Amino acid sequence: MKSVFFGAVSATALIASVGHAEPQAEVLHWWTSGGEAKSVAVLQEEFAAQGGTWTDMPVAGGGGDAAMTALRARVLSGNAPTAVQLKGPAIQEWYEEGVLADISAVAEAQGWADVLPASIAGHMQCEGTWCAAPVNVHRVDWIWANADVLEANGIEMPNTWDEFNAAAEKLQAAGIIPLAHGGQSWQDATVFEAVALGVLGADGFRKAFVDLDMDTLKSDEMKAVFDQMRTMRGYVDDNFSGRDWNLATAMVMNGEAAFQIMGDWAKGEFMAAGKVPGEDFLCASVPGDGFLYNVDSFAMFTVDGDDKKAGQDLLAELIVGQNFQKVFNLNKGSIPARTDVSLDEFDSCAHLSAKDMTESSDNGSLLPSYAHGMALRGAQAGAITDVVTAHFNSDMSSDDAVNMLVDAVTNSM
Ligand code: BGC
After folding, report:
1. Engineering a disulfide at 23: which of 151, 311, 312, 356 sits with its beta carbon 3.0 to 4.6 angstroms away?
2. Backbone angles phi, psi at 312, to 5 degrees
3. pLDDT digits (tens, 9 = 90+) for 136-188
4. Is 261 left (phi over 0), alpha (psi -120 to 50) or beta?
5. Ligand 1 centre from 63 Cα, in Å?
6. What Rg do the C-alpha atoms of the chain give, in angstroms?
7. 150 alpha carbon to ligand 1 midpoint, in Å?
8. 30 lines ligand 1 (CB under 6 A)
9. Rounded to 5 degrees, what are φ and ψ at 43?
10. What's the CA gap between 249 and 145, in Å, rounded?
11. SS3 260
């Protein structure tokens, strides 16, 4: 077996802690698009290079809703996967059910506390133990655009929602779909929270989607968020319903549509298709200040067998390893969770992300994404998303939407 060194401790040293078992892992994840598959292959390859046997359990479906349903069924039948793509408060929810393995030994041997920002480390800990390993930092509040389409129509990346609307009207008049969107509830929620960050500002976003402050949820500003969602409903094409997010990205790539509002896993798709940032496609944060983060991570479930425990330790160690954090994130569109990985090989969008993340952390506008399960427990996030989707797919007024929002959140608590 090869020995790969990660700072003070090597993979083989940790595997030795569970005897000479051959590492095994059944890994549940929802990385099935082109860019995602290329990314997860990096972990599969590193695992195999260390003698591990990987059993893949991909569950297609952007945002992971289908994967989480599959996970629940597996755990309820007493047959949990070895490692699961899991994030945000869902990690603590599963921990409370008593089904997560403690990976503190790996975390301590590898010094995770020293190489991860405190905001990320906090999500990975359960009552003082380490219960998940972070892969990356995705930013959610991005606008992607087809560079040629914008240039041909004399349009700049918008700095305000009014500018966005003016650009969209111009594009529509020219026969171009302004906004590539897939009508799936998590995609509606992704656009909604990006609009909310701009309209409510960072403090308002925190009050609404972290603190669940009722006054903010029913405020005039929240009505303005729904107003903008209604306007944007007019900018998507007739076939948006049910479309996968990566197909929406493809519409921007091929010039059928101008913009997509989506996390930077969309950049993974552009890159996997050989597109060049700044030339073929453009990235900009959505109008408004702040940074909505979405940290992918893996939690290990309690399983029997030294081979699986060895697999869990090895996976945890590889995931936080410097090489994996670099190569995976170059493919995935995100930036490393570790602070000590050089960004020299990363593109301009990743550099912007890293800069904005530092600035927003310093000025208090670094915020967890509610749409991607970082801010709230499942019941509350689901209650909000139900309202967002119901509004987007009907002619519901903004007044009715905020009333429904307050009721839904109240009933979910
Ligand atoms: C995940 C990403 C994934 C995206 C689309 C997000 O919730 O964090 O890793 O690429 O969903 O499936």
Report:
1. 311
2. -65, -45
3. 999 999 999 999 999 999 999 999 999 999 999 999 999 999 999 999 999 99
4. beta
5. 5
6. 21
7. 27
8. yes
9. -70, -40
10. 9
11. strand
